[in-house]
Amino acid sequence: MNPGFGTVARVIVDRRVRGGSGTLVAIDVFVALVAVAVSWAVLSADSLDWPAGSRDPDWLAVALVVAVNAPIAFRRRACSAALAVALGAGLIYAARLYPPIFAPAVPLIVYLAATRLDDRRSRLVLIVSAAMSWITTTVAAGPTDPQSVLIVAGAWLLGHYVRTRRQLVAELEQRAVDLEREREERALRAVAEERLRIARELHDVLAHTMSVVAVQSSTGRLIGAEHPEEALKALTAVEVTTRSAMREMRQILTVLRTDDDPGGPVTPAPGLHDLPVLVAQVAAEAGLTVDLRTEGEPRAISAGVGLAAYRIVQEALTNVIKHAAPAHASVLVRYTDQDLTVEIRDDGQAGRSGVVTGGHGLVGMQERAAVHGGEVIAGPAAGGGFRVKARLPLGGVES
Length: 399
Fold this sequence. Notes:
It is built from 11 helices and 5 strands; from the N terminus they run ααααααααβαββααββ. Helices cover 64% and strands 9% of the residues. It is of the alpha+beta class. The two termini are 45 Å apart. Strand 4 (375-380) and strand 5 form a beta hairpin. Helix 1 (5-43) runs antiparallel to helix 2 (59-69), helix 3 (79-95) runs antiparallel to helix 4 (105-116) and helix 4 (105-116) packs antiparallel against helix 5. The longest helix is centred in the middle third of the chain and has 77 residues, at 147-223. The chain has 3 domains: 5-145, no CATH class; 192-255, Single alpha-helices involved in coiled-coils or other helix-helix interfaces; 272-393, Histidine kinase-like ATPase, C-terminal domain (Heat Shock Protein 90). A 5-stranded mixed β-sheet has the order 1-2-3-5-4.
């Protein structure tokens, strides 16, 4: 999910709501007409069914029947006005002792108000509607019937429940958006942190390289007069080493964007020659069986490429220990004329999506490969297990 997904989703929902509001109003108009028709049918019924003391309906009764039911048609656009008209017309109708009619307007409006208004105003609507309904049924012809008050209370409870559920769903959706944004921010921080670690390690490589240059140049200066051929070899080593150092510096300036911490040791960083030690350490400490193989003719590579390959293998084996152990793993180092490939496979659980799409491990591998113009592919392996394959273009010699 990208950062604007939640906004786009809300815009689509708003458009759907606006598009459906016309349909809802049309339904309300239809319900109002049905309510008027049913009320008229009740008024036209046999007067023997009317409560004692009821008076015959006249033109005012007909007008009040329409006034009681008509607010259903505009309750969504003017909820308070619709409720006032319905309650007022109902009270006048009851006070005139007309026969009982079918009048669903008040419960429908109360339900709508409970779904839209805040708690304070919603409770006010409930209190006013319940009180007016009680007064209406008290002054109406026949005995007092509390059923209308219970219907109003039930409509409010249903509306309040719907509003609460909508708020809960909205909060969950917003929380999902916030979590997605937080995940992306964590991924960006992981990239920055990994680049800082790479910068520190490359700092170690360059410091070691400069130390070699200093030693070789000093040797050439001391023996140049008596052994010019040895001095020439020292100068050649200085040239090769400095070219490699300049390549490393260009890679740092191209990829990294954060200042490095000058602290830390300046010892040489690990490389491919340290992989047997790493495999033995993993086997001893984690009990993981790892096969190490080499294909192609080994050749001298830059210290930066060797470090990147070593760290990628290290992180991949760490992921095997975390997510697939107990398992059997294999590490393949393949040399070609153009690039170096390291491939780590295991026969553990396949499809560890958490390792592929999340976490800092894969981010670190990709950043290390990107520094040297390479790439990393990670995912379930054919036949089960998991595979990490990194390709690093070759260049320069190891100092």
